[in-house]
């Protein structure tokens, strides 16, 4: 029997070393409690038989386990194969899964009659290391295995193989009767075979002209694969000459790649130090080592991917396979299929690329590893950086983490010897780090209704006079974050939600950034009916732009946020204009903060540094440090030195002082001490149990009952229940319990035990978030 893709029997599933290691436990009961809503009642009839092969099939549905079927084919399909099988009233496509021997032993005693699999697909089975990773990730995140598998099977029908498309290719013959229309079609077809529609529109003729050319001998019908293969990266192509530091780091990583073992490796270097070139060298090394090896580069934001794809193309002479939410259905299928075949060797993508069906993944790079965007907050809640490290640990390949401001988690992993680290000490080509200063807004107050302090205005003036570019950073979309009635004090909120409506003046609407609700700005207060009493409070980027345009009428000013530039293409246009020096002042949210290289940008002004510090989030200071380092790091990346001015009302806050003095290590040390004292991650484990219900009284009862059911355990502390900072969202009220444990406690096992003791309450949903980041 072939077990080409099967898991080795008796493998120690916990042998891989990460800080995420958890013990295997049966989670079925708990998962039924959590996800019972989604379990179809009519499951496959499980009764007995013993002819044919018995195989377990996991479906991409929120189910905790695989189900047994019979397979009548001569060969037992290997683990990872895609199959179609009857499930309840439907036929569902699932994946052959390792069977749970304990479960099977129990069932053996019963008389059984299993249903048969309908079809085994011809597609490449999922690799053993991916199957193993899905099992592990389900246990770690406490989501059902089937929900994890669904993340791999997001692309509909990809495993069915290509449905060939008809295209028309030029034969090279000229038909006897030529017309200008026919001439144009043949010219269009001369480059590559295309569909009738494509040729017709390229030539500006009807499809009838195209089809007519087949009969006339000028065109030939051919079948083409709708998912063209990716061009292989050119691994012999020389990258740029690396600096001494870069070469040292690249060699360090290359030795680990050579040894073919897992290591988490931090590439630590200030913004602009050339980390990207170092990990490109690592990608080249990993792909050169094995002709079938594949590599994945993860980026936190899709705004970054477009320019990045080009940078990769320049380096390797071929565009990588892209993966992000803006791809069309056809593009997604192409990447998925080509990755599954092993044909796409280099993938650049957002966090969900981690779940692509790589048959031979040998390296993952997590760029900007500290970035909060790696945490997926909807559906299955996971942190892509943590899962990437676990994926590498289990499959035995290195995972590179690049950052100028590594997360405390990663720094502690390095300090405690779990990860390796290499540093790049300065900026590439000796470009200077920007000179950062704080503007104390208590001393340097802007005029009423204005947001830019006299000092910052003076610096912008100077910059304009020497034709250098300025970035004004404010991490707030729209015109004003709060709309208030001057007469009765009413604050405009979204219906059924405790979220403030944000004014967007370009569209003259009030918008909720949490629910997506929007309405035209009313002229009358909905409560006291006063006319024209609604006032905008506080600034968003649009309001700062208004002030800038008033102050510098001759400057070329642009605003960039996810509203002003929806989609990566439009965003790209503004970023390109900035790069080309066609913008004098760019006013932007964090979309412009990361990864970009604007050679003539020499001044960065942070409009409100206090924004991220408000609220009781445990990572607030860390995030502020990271974001502001990143933003100020945009200044002076080329020949001209840069400077950054940070406006704040809290000039004494230690995080801002550390930022101004560039003392990252002092900041991290203070931050580490604070977290250690409180036993928060990375010095302890944390999980959030979120309860939600439209019925506030039921929610209260459920939360308190759950609190009361919490088992006493050494090293475990339960905090709450407390209302979420935004208590009501879209008519649903939310409460939260936090579980904080010592690091040596098996957090997942504790949660399983707790949930077992909790009686489900109708109408109240429970969600778990292991190592929560967002406290909204
Ligand atoms: N060895 C090299 N030869 C030539 N140019 C280089 C080299 N290394 C880096 N550069 C250039 O220096 C600039 C900064 O490099 P890079 O983008 O790799 O830095 P980074 O550390 O990834 O920065 P950030 O953290 O800000 O994203 C880029 O324009 C890059 O092309
Ligand atoms: Zn009012």
From TrEMBL:
Zn(2+) 2 binds at residue 512. It comes from the Bacteria. Component of the replication restart primosome. Coiled coil: none annotated. One of its GO terms (molecular function) is hydrolase activity. Binds 2 zinc ions per subunit. The keyword S-adenosyl-L-methionine does not apply. This is Replication restart protein PriA. Its EC number is 5.6.2.4. It is an enzyme of class 5 (isomerase). The gene is priA. Keywords: ATP-binding, DNA replication, DNA-binding, Helicase, Hydrolase, Isomerase, Metal-binding, Nucleotide-binding, Primosome, Zinc. Its cofactor is Zn(2+).
């Amino acid at each position: 029997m072939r077990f080409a893709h099967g898991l080795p029997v008796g493998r120690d599933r916990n042998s891989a070393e990460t800080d995420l290691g958890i013990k295997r436990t049966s989670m079925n009961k708990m998962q039924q409690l959590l996800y019972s809503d989604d379990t179809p009642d009519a499951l496959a009839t499980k009764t007995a038989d013993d002819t044919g092969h018995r195989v377990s099939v996991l479906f991409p549905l929120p189910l905790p386990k695989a189900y047994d079927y019979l397979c009548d084919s001569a060969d037992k399909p290997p683990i990872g194969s895609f199959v179609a099988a009857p499930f309840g009233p439907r036929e569902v496509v699932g994946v052959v899964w390792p069977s749970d021997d304990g479960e099977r032993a129990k069932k053996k005693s019963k008389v059984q009659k299993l249903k048969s699999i309908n079809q085994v697909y011809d597609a490449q089975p999922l690799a053993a290391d991916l199957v193993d990773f899905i099992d592990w990730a389900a246990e770690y995140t406490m989501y059902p295995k089937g929900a994890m598998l669904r993340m791999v099977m997001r692309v509909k029908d990809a495993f069915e193989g290509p449905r060939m498309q008809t295209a028309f290719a030029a034969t090279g013959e000229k038909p006897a009767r030529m017309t200008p229309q026919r001439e144009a079609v043949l010219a269009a077809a001369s480059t590559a075979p295309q569909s009738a529609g494509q040729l017709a529109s390229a030539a500006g003729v009807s499809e009838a002209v195209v089809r007519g050319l087949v009969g006339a001998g000028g065109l030939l019908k051919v079948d083409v694969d709708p998912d063209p293969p990716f061009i292989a990266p050119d691994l012999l192509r020389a990258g740029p000459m690396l600096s001494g530091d870069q070469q040292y780091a690249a060699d360090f990583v290359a030795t680990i790649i050579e040894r073919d073992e897992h290591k988490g490796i931090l590439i630590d270097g200030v913004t602009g130090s050339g980390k990207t070139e170092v990990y490109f060298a690592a990608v080249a090394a990993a792909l050169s080592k094995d002709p079938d090896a594949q590599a994945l580069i993860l980026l936190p934001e899709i705004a970054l991917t477009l320019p990045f794809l080009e940078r990769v193309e320049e380096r390797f002479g071929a565009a990588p396979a892209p993966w992000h939410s803006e791809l069309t259905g056809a593009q997604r299928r192409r990447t998925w299929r080509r990755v599954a075949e092993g044909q796409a060797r280099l993938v650049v993508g957002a966090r969900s690329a981690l779940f692509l069906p790589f048959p031979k993944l040998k390296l993952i790079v997590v760029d900007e590893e500290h970035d909060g965007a790696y945490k997926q907050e909807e559906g299955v809640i996971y942190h892509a950086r943590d899962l990437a490290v676990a994926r590498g640990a289990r499959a035995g390949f290195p995972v590179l983490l690049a950052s100028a401001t590594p997360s405390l988690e990663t720094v502690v992993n390095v300090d405690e010897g779990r990860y390796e680290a290499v540093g790049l000490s300065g900026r590439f080509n000796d470009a200077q780090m920007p000179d950062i200063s704080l503007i104390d807004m208590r001393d340097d107050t802007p005029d009423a209704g204005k947001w830019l302090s006299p000092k910052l205005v003076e610096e912008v003036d100077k910059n304009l006079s020497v034709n250098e570019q300025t970035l004004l950073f404010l991490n707030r979309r729209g015109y004003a974050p709060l709309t208030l009635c001057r007469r009765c004090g009413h604050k405009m909120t979204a219906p059924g939600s405790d979220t403030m409506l944000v004014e967007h003046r370009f569209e003259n609407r009030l918008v909720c950034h949490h629910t997506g609700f929007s309405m035209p700005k009313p002229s009358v207060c909905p409560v006291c009916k006063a006319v024209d009493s609604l006032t905008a409070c506080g600034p968003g980027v649009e309001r700062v732009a208004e002030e800038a345009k008033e102050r510098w009428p001759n400057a070329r000013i642009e605003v960039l946020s996810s509203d002003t530039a929806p989609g990566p293409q439009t965003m790209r246009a503004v970023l390109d204009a900035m790069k080309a020096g066609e913008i004098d002042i760019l006013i932007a949210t964090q979309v412009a903060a990361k990864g970009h290289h604007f050679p003539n940008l020499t001044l960065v002004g942070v409009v409100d540094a206090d924004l991220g510090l408000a609220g009781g989030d445990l990572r607030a200071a860390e995030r502020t440090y990271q974001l502001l380092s990143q933003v100020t790091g945009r200044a002076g990346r080329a020949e001209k030195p840069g400077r950054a001015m940070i406006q704040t009302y809290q000039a004494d806050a230690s995080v801002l002082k550390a930022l101004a003095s560039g003392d990252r290590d002092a900041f991290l040390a203070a931050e580490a001490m604070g977290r250690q004292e409180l036993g928060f991650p990375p010095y302890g484990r944390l999980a959030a149990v979120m309860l939600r219900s439209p019925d506030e009284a039921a929610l209260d009862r459920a939360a308190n009952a759950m609190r009361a059911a919490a088992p006493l355990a050494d090293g475990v502390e339960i905090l709450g229940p407390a209302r979420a900072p935004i208590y009501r969202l879209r008519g649903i009220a939310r409460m939260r319990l936090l579980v904080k444990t010592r690091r040596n406690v098996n957090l997942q096992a504790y949660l399983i035990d707790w949930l077992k003791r909790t009686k489900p309450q109708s109408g109240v949903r429970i969600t778990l978030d292991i190592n929560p980041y967002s406290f909204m």
